[in-house]
């Protein structure tokens, strides 16, 4: 179980609280939709869950333990809306994936529907946005996460590509028992992919 208990966070003293007593649960293999307007703190919560930000109060646990105590990659991987911002433009796709610590065999053995082998020696600007997001998903999955926070991952993509990206993510996460927190302001999308939806006020 991924748990967030009584999380409080703000970006600086005297600034407003972005998270104020926030709690959340995601079970293994469960897809939870987090629905709410932009600017409400959903992305901040995702960054706290993935260990990118440290809460001022409260705690995050994975299977009852603080995730920072585990060796290796963080058990909660964050996938963002703009994959190009999460990649060094000087690296090839192969370099980006190798940055997870995955070996050549793991990279070459990736599902071809997720990462086309022809992309591996290209640079991020040489493939489309939808293709780049699939690389971003593969990078998260290569880290062998227990949970994935998918933060508006298809908001900038066309409807066909959105469906493809979500199908691939769920196709890889559900059988492996990987829990997913799907963050979006698009409720119909969340109704299509999530087991349950949490409304973010």
Main sheet properties: 5 strands, parallel
Please identify the top-level CATH class: Alpha Beta
CATH superfamily: P-loop containing nucleotide triphosphate hydrolases
| Low-confidence runs of at least 5 consecutive residues | none
* CATH architectural label: 3-Layer(aba) Sandwich
Written description of the protein model:
The protein has 201 residues and is α/β, with parallel strands linked by helices. It has one domain (2-199): Rossmann fold, CATH 3.40.50.300. The chain contains 6 helices and 8 strands; from the N terminus they run E-E-E-H-E-E-H-H-H-E-H-E-H-E. The strands form 2 sheets. The protein has a 5-stranded parallel beta sheet, sandwiched between helices. A 3-stranded antiparallel beta sheet has the order 2-1-4, covered by helices on one side. The chain is globular. It starts with a strand and ends with a strand.
Any descriptors?
201 residues; alpha/beta; Rossmann fold; five-stranded parallel sheet; three-stranded antiparallel sheet; 6 helices; 29% helix
Condensed summary:
The chain contains six helices and eight strands; from the N terminus they run E-E-E-H-E-E-H-H-H-E-H-E-H-E. It is α/β, with parallel strands linked by helices. The chain has a single domain (2-199), classed as P-loop containing nucleotide triphosphate hydrolases (Rossmann fold).
Outline the fold blueprint.
Blueprint: E1 2-9, E2 19-26, E3 31-35, H1 42-49, E4 57-62, E5 76-79, H2 93-98, H3 104-108, H4 129-142, E6 147-151, H5 159-176, E7 179-184, H6 187-193, E8 196-199
Parallel strand pairs: 3-7, 3-8, 5-6, 6-7
Antiparallel strand pairs: 1-2, 1-4
């Amino acid at each position: 179980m991924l748990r967030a208990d009584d999380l409080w966070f703000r970006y600086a003293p005297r600034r407003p609280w972005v998270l104020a007593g926030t709690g959340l649960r995601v079970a293994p293999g469960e897809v939870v939709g987090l629905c709410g307007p932009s600017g409400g703190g959903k992305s901040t919560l995702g960054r706290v869950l993935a260990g990118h930000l440290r809460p001022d109060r409260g705690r995050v646990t994975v299977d009852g333990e603080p995730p920072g105590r585990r060796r290796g990659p963080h058990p909660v991987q964050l996938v963002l809306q703009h994959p190009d911002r999460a990649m060094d433009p000087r690296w090839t796709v192969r370099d980006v994936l190798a940055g997870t610590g995955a070996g050549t065999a793991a990279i070459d053995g990736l599902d071809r529907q997720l990462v086309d082998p022809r992309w591996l020696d290209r640079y991020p600007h040489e493939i489309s946005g939808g293709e780049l997001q699939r690389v971003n998903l593969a990078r998260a999955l290569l880290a062998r996460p227990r949970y994935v926070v998918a933060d508006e991952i298809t908001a900038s993509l066309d409807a066909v590509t959105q469906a493809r990206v979500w199908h691939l993510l769920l196709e890889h996460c559900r059988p492996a028992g990987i829990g997913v927190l799907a963050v979006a302001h698009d409720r119909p999308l969340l109704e299509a992919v999530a087991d349950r939806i949490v409304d973010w006020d």
